[in-house]
UniProtKB/TrEMBL annotation:
Residues covered by the SIS domain: 36-179
Species of origin: Jeongeupia naejangsanensis
Keywords, comma-separated and alphabetical: CBS domain, Isomerase, Repeat
Name this protein carries in UniProt: KpsF/GutQ family sugar-phosphate isomerase
SUPFAM superfamilies tied to this protein: SIS domain
Ranges of residues in domain CBS: 205-263, 272-323
Entries under InterPro entries matching the protein: CBS_dom, CBS_dom_sf, GutQ/KpsF_isomerases, KdsD/KpsF-type, SIS_dom, SIS_dom_sf, SIS_Kpsf
One Pfam family per UniProt: SIS
Family per similarity comment: Belongs to the SIS family. GutQ/KpsF subfamily.
Organism lineage: Bacteria, Pseudomonadati, Pseudomonadota, Betaproteobacteria, Neisseriales
GO molecular function: isomerase activity
């Protein structure tokens, strides 16, 4: 029990130290953060993020966050840069260099080349008097009072602070660009958000020969055959000109049978639902889900410029993983 208690105490201390580091860093933010944002926003090339060791891992994550939130960014390893990867960097780029000490040999080694190219450098570092900070165009102070490591050696609070400051940059740039959820979805097409924001009704609807549809002058029997053939639990009903006039569903069938209707003699127009709910083909599939859930129905007919073009049900949306 004493070991668990010690572990809990240690964990809480680590979290407290790292939380204090971020809070203190937030209080120090000043015009230099605005200057860094201005440089990155004005960049006509890419934001190149670099760092060595633990700072390199954080740099990779910052580059990924920037790239997914509207800022063209990539990570370049400083050790690889001095062996040819500097060719990836152009004069129109901006370099975001991470080094807590500001004295990482691999990062410092690429500074002369960056200067010759005329590349602007933003330093995310913890020491104001370091070589990296003195060479940078803008310094973002990521200093911490202490590491969370009890030996005060392993990068812990300092890497957390650097990561948080990178997130602050990314979000500030996102806001300045007017970046929206739809933009985020474009770079995340495989995720649930991408599916909700990129999949449209026309992408999942039944169309052409797969669309269940009958004329309004056919008998109930013919509508049942169409429902059976197309397997959607409903069929659209159109007039002689192809204009949608109703829908006949499983529910309509049950009500017709309860009323004693003869399936061999009753016109479908007498038992169909008039003015059925529809959705536009260009609407998001997620909107179809919302309509179905609110109205407690399992299917919708789809229109394009007022003409019937498709049908979809909840099973289609489940298969598309929109639900």
């Amino acid at each position: 029990m004493s070991e668990i208690t010690q572990s809990l105490a240690q964990a809480r201390q680590v979290l407290a130290i790292e939380a204090d580091a971020i809070t203190a860093m937030a209080a120090r933010l000043d015009h230099r953060f605005d200057a860094a944002c201005a440089l990155l926003l004005g960049c006509s090339g890419r934001v190149v993020v670099t760092g060595m060791g633990k700072s390199g891992h954080i740099a990779r994550k910052i580059a990924a966050t920037l790239a997914s939130t509207g800022t063209t960014a990539m990570f370049v390893h400083p050790a690889e840069a001095v062996h040819g990867d500097l060719g990836m960097i152009r004069a129109e780029d901006v370099v975001l260099a991470l080094s807590y000490s500001g004295e990482s040999d691999e990062v410092l080694a690429i500074l002369p080349s960056l200067k010759r190219l005329g590349v602007k450098v933003v330093a995310l570092a913890g020491r104001a008097d370091s070589t990296l900070v003195r060479a940078a165009d803008v310094w973002l102070d990521a200093g911490v009072a202490q590491e969370a490591c009890p030996l005060n050696l392993a990068p812990t609070a300092s890497t957390t602070a650097a990561l948080a400051l990178g997130d602050a940059l990314a979000v500030a740039l996102l806001d300045a660009r007017g970046f929206k959820a739809e933009d985020f979805a474009l770079s995340h097409p495989g995720g649930s958000l991408g599916r909700r924001l990129l999949v449209h009704v026309r992408d999942v609807m039944h169309a052409g020969d797969a669309l269940p549809v009958v004329r309004d002058d056919v008998l109930l029997r013919d509508a049942l055959l169409e429902i059976s053939r197309k397997g959607m639990g409903m069929t659209a009903v159109v007039d002689a000109t192809g204009v949608l006039v109703g829908v006949f569903t499983d529910g309509d069938l049950r009500r017709a049978l309860d009323d004693g209707r003869d399936v061999l003699a009753t016109p479908v127009a007498q038992v169909m639902t008039h003015a059925p709910l529809t959705i536009d083909a260009d609407h998001l599939a997620a909107e179809a889900v919302q309509v179905m859930e609110q109205r407690r129905i399992n299917g919708l007919l789809v229109l394009d410029a007022g003409r019937l073009v498709g049908a979809l049900n909840m099973h289609d949306l489940l298969r598309a993983r929109v639900v």
